[in-house]
Amino acid sequence: MSNFAKFNATTDARAELHDQIQLTGAEVSINNLPAGAGVPFVHSHKKNEEIYIVLSGKGKAMIDGETVSLQAGDIVRVSPAAKRQFSASETEGISFVCIQVRENSLEGFTADDAVME
Fold it and tell me: Which residues, 6 or more positions from 4, have their beta carbon under 8 angstroms from its beta carbon?
């Protein structure tokens, strides 16, 4: 069995990677919203925080009733209980990665977990 998995999500409106690359410690999704489109629901989580990384375009997030403007390069962390909804701007689409992990589960950072050879 291989120690890696690869998936290309460039053409999907939304791709959840847990099955495609056999994720076991996080959920990662790639999201592409065209201009004027938005996620059709508001949601929160029981245990998982989310990290949103805007790859391209512009849009906004509604987080607990506050509007947060988004553009390429922005990174936003949202706590589990926060109610959130994302949308593209009226004139430009937005592409972003969402990483979902259990809040307070990180036991070490890169250098702490690395095995140097």
Answer: none
Between vectors from CA 109 to CA 104 and to CA 115, what angle results, nearest 5°? 135
Interval 11-20: pLDDT, tens: 678 888 788 8
Contacts of residue 45, defined as CB under 8 A and 6 or more positions apart, other chains included, come to 80, 81, 100
d(CA 104, CA 88): 30
DSSP for residue 90? S
Question: Strand pairing of 66-71 and 27-33?
Answer: unpaired
| Calpha distance 91→36 (Å, rounded) | 7
Q: Is the pTM of this model over 0.85?
A: yes
* E strand or H helix at 13: none
* Kind plus residue range of the DSSP H or E element containing 63: strand 48-63
